[in-house]
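Cross-posted from the bioinformatics board.
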Amino acid sequence: MSPRRAAVTDDDSPESFLPLPRDTFHILVSLGDRDRHGYSVMLDVADRTDGALRLSPSSLYASIKRLLGQGLIEELDERPDPRNDDQRRRYYRLTRLGRRVATAEALRLQRLLSDARATGLLPKKA
Amino acid sequence: MASSPAPPPRTRAFRFLLSLYPGEFRDEYGRELALVFADRYRDAPTAWQRAVVWAEAIGGVLREAPREHMHVLMQDLRFAVRVLVRTPGFFVTALLTLALGVGATTAIFQLIDAVGLRQLPVPAAHELAELRIVGGNGGFGINPGFYGQLTRPVWNEIRAHQEGFTGVFAWGTRELRTGQGADLRRASGLDVSAEFFSVLGIRPWRGRLLQPEDTAAPCDASRAVVSHAFWQAQLNGRELTSGTRLTINGTLHDIIGVTPPEFFGLAVGERFDIALPLCAPPNARREVFDVAVMGRLRPGWTIARASAQLNALSSGIFEATAPTGYNAASTERFKAFRLAAYPAGSGVSRLRTQFDTSLKLLLVISGLVLLIACANLANLMMARATARAREVAVRLALGASRTRLVRQFVAESCVLALLGAALGVGLAQILSRVLVWGLSNDAVVLSLTVSWRVVLFAAAVAVGTCVVFGVAPAFRATHIEPTEAMKTGGRGLSAGRDRLVVQRSMVVMQITVSLVLLVAALMFVRSFRNLITFDPGIRQDGISIAFVAFPWLGKLPAEQIVDFQRQLVEEIQSVPGVRNAAITSNLPLLGSSWTHGITLDQRKWWARFTWVGPGYFDTVGIPVLRGRGLTPHDMRSSPRVAVVNEEFVRQLVPDGDPIGRTFETQPEPDYPATRYEIVGIIPDTKYNSLRNDAEPMAFAPATQHPIVRPWAAIMIHSTTEPAVAIAAVKRLISERHPDGLAEFEIFKSRIHAGLVRERLLAILAGLFGLLAAILAMVGLYGLIAFAVAERRHEIGIRIALGADAGQVVGMMMRDALRLLIVGLMLGVGASLWAAPAAATLLFGLEPHDPATLIGACLLLTIVTAAASFIPARDASRLDPVRALRQD
């Protein structure tokens, strides 16, 4: 089972969450630039992966529930963008911890990438 | 507010799908999920993509919903453990109570599983079938062993003609002696036909197993296979060589192989030591039913089809193998036997036949003990629920659903039940081994492993107990008005007495069930005592039995053998301390029997026959009522005479003087029709078992036995302890007859060893009855103590107003008395209703025995009085000032 936390404090080290499950990382990335509602997250993920990763509503909300519990995202009280607002929906945002965790995972992947370049698995120049 | 339009059917369908989620998750995310689904559906341009949306939605829910349920369950369980650990006293008490209840029940079930439910440890055991005569042979001919079903000639015919089996084999059991002279040891022997090991699919552990070439030789084959246990114990596990030999029944045998450790033979609960080739010559005796036949069903054949084929063969088989020497009616009876196949995957078992009813009865009894334990737990949980009323009220007020709270309470019970069951299964391992140890006089060998059936059983018991003691308190705790509970601080939820209704009915139930169990316990203990102290009409004290054999005697004519045996008995009689001794063809009370059909005038009947030496009646203490006993003058050449018992006279000579009358036995092979003159009458005694009723018996002189054998059983009556007499006789035989083989037993020990079932029932039913009484006592104590705590205020006032200690004690105990009376009345009814089930297991006792019922009631009354007196006395010592101030 994944590590579960009852209360989240600033002391939680982002590294303790790594490596992130694939779906989780994509959700966090999707919330990196702006706050979104669930369907928006799904569309964004599908868009960025050229349709390779299609989250189902069930797995999306299972992940959201877990991320909320872990304190990596939070639900918004106010609506983010009045022009685009959909009153019916719930919006989610990265917490400070969530951002640090997503960054740490990105750095981890980057290190992995440079390791792959160093050993010649990938071309030196991207 | 304008009403929103009804959602389209697909949304309703999706919402229905969402009902697979736990309530909390649905409440939290259900609307969102439905919205996302609607969006995706709307955005899907083609019918195919819409179908994909549906498929993904369904797949997602089916994948995620169970995980969410698991998550909630784990949460509940973690919370339950935290709550339980907060009250360690309650936790440990509850756990131990459950572990004991589950442990006892599982131990009994494990025995039932080992004796009756498990398959034999051979490949594809379910394909095995036993071939038997439909309805048995009805005592026809000679039936030497428990497992003998067919004669050897019948086996030869079956082997030659059967079609339904890929292979058939015959086997029989027999007691063997290994070693020589004074170093004789008993071993349990298995006679097996050539196909035995190959049809069963047993592979050798060492060497090789018996094959056709080992049995092809005439019946003096000298090769044997030993069991793994025997190899370890008697041959020290040494590797087999061509020089590995063992003297079995006086002949040297080569030990050619060892069977694997898990193979014990085909009789569950027993273990073979040595397997020898079964000898089945065409001219084998046709009236001796000493082999059992089994086979492995041919693929595509069913038991029914195989039975039909056997049935078709039967008349030919029994026609061809009919024994000679019987009268026409008996021979016709033999020819009318029919064969059929019966499933034999779980082997055969004397133990199963013997203990089936008793073990099932014990399972019910232990289940009832568990029920009482559950009632105690339920009462404990109720008390806790009351104490936690404020917590529940707060959580209800904060919006927790009742379902969630009920689940929380049930989770606590289930954590208890599961832990209790786990501990119980552990405990059962010890208990069942103690039981087997208690069961066995020497040779009960059961492999007690935790099979899936045992685990399933324990799990079912755990779930059952969880439901029994968890649900009622849970509902009780959560069906309160939050405001009420908050106001009263969780104490007086309603009128005190009403609230105890459930607790009180549980205590009544406990008393009822305890009474039933106490009645059972007393019945079995008394029945066992009856058996132990019963006078069978035969002397049991100071009697030892000697089995003596002189292989060289066999070569002598009958007269000389008889003469030698007479001399030997005289020598034994002269040993100091020995008062008397006599040869007998059958040992009384130990199960063996010999029956002859007889005719007296025109009356046809039967009688149990025993051929005994002259001192027999004196030795075993049977008086001769009329006429004379048997004397040394009744020689082999003298006219045939018999001493008969009173039952014989009642059946065959109801009028006139029986002395001087003659009767004739029906002919049997080796036992030609013989005319005996009745010369004496003895009283009725038990014949082959303590349990049987009086049967017609005839005693004839041992010297006149139609077959004279080079061995004999001699009963010895000594003034000294049997062990002392045995030592002296042993010395005599080794000094004067060093070539003789001798074995000894103490008569009374053998009789008591045959009462294992009764002893087991008495001990276990007694223990369970005691446990039930203790549990009921604890339950009642808890209830009265709780009631005292509840009524502290009232009692304080009464004492302040001048009630004395006696009045307070009386008041509290009157309450207990009322419960007791109701419980006893129900218990007596239940006992009377249930008692007939035990009737066949009782001896010298009616199932509706008033003394037992009264005794059990009295016992329970004393227990109840003791349990309620302590808290009642505490109540009377209450300090009224403090009691009132606390409010």
